Amino acid sequence: MTKSSVTIDLAGITTKVAIHQAFKQHLGFPDWYGPSWDALWDAIIAVVEMPEEVLLLNWQEFAEACPKDMQILHQIIADYHEELPNKQIVLAKQSLEA
């Protein structure tokens, strides 16, 4: 059974390798998953059962450090919503304060 929502805190993530490691850890990607955007797409579409919602917190630092990779992530999020309209990956507008 799949969780309905997964939150991934990207605070301190400033590299492509680190963001892919966070995705792998929180979304249960297989050991062979590597840090590439094509691998991410394959994993979220065909390899793992994704939750209804993935909420990405504190993504702004990654966006500043890796603007080109952030553009790719934005496109993946848009394509994902088109491919699976009943599921979503959301960039939180701001961090959720405890």
Please give a quick description of this structure.
The protein has 98 residues and is of the alpha/beta class.
How does this structure look, described?
With 98 residues, the protein is of the alpha/beta class. It has one domain (5-91): Barstar-like (Barnase, Chain D, 2-Layer Sandwich), CATH 3.30.370. It has helices at 16-27, 37-47, 60-65, 67-83; strands at 5-9, 53-57, 88-91. A three-stranded parallel beta sheet has the order 1-2-3. The longest helix is centred in the last third of the chain and has 17 residues, at 67-83. The mean pLDDT is 93.
Radius of gyration: 13 Å
The fourth-level CATH homologous superfamily is Barstar-like
CATH architecture: 2-Layer Sandwich
Average of per-residue pLDDT values: 93
- CATH T-level fold name: Barnase, Chain D
Q: What is the chains' assembly state?
A: single chain
Globally, the shape reads globular
- Helical stretch tally: 4
**Gap between N and C termini, in Å?**
28 Å
Main-sheet strand order equals 1-2-3
- Helix content, binned percent: 40-55%
The largest β sheet comes out as: 3 strands, parallel
Provide the low-confidence segments as ranges: none
Strand fraction: 5-15%
Q: Tell me the domain tally.
A: 1
CATH class value: Alpha Beta
What is the N-to-C order of secondary-structure elements (H for helix, E for strand)?
Answer: EHHEHHE
What is the strand tally?
Answer: 3
Structural class of the secondary elements? alpha/beta
